[in-house]
Amino acid sequence: FSFRLAYIFSYNLFQFCGHTWILANSIARLLTFGRDALADTFYSIGFVMSLCQLLSILELFHIADGIEKARLLPRFVQVMEKNLLLIMVIMVEEIQSKPIVFVLFFLWNILDLLRYPHELLCSMDKPSIAMLWTRYTLRIPLYILSVGIEVVTIYQALPYIEATPPKSCSLNSTVSAHIHRPVLLMLCLPVLALGASVTVWQLLKEKQHQLDRWNKKMKRK
């Protein structure tokens, strides 16, 4: 027992419980209210989703400090793209009631639920080969799908961002006059595609590494 072990176990347990609540709430509302539940997705689960995604920034420090053994680059790309897109959804209120936000949050939630149970078992030194295989086999295609949904979300947010030009103040009026926020968002799309490509490549390498390490452990036993 150590403080680090207790901390990483508590963190993964909190994330697991948070995303389980989000999934249960989303499914229950969808079964109860049907399509009407899609419009209230952000208002019903937005706070918990924002809290979970904000706390996920800590994972970058976990990897850097050696508490968690994982590749920093793909985790950095995933954490930052989620948080930046979430900030966009929070700032553009018109997009919050779109069905695409429900799909986006649902995919994010499934991706995290594929990871945190495995991390919980690893923190207890009881890894599962079935969960390891499921995590990496399903996570990569779901991640690619989620990136596509993120692109659609940005595209649907563009008209609302164009309709609300940025306010300028006396100090930066010259700079802000040359800043066109839709153009900045469009420039984010190739960056998002490049980051996703690098992340998928790194995840494939991490999958092979984890499976090789598991096979070595089984041979020793």
From TrEMBL:
Originating organism: Nibea albiflora
Domain of life: Eukaryota
Name of the protein described by the UniProt record: Very-long-chain (3R)-3-hydroxyacyl-CoA dehydratase
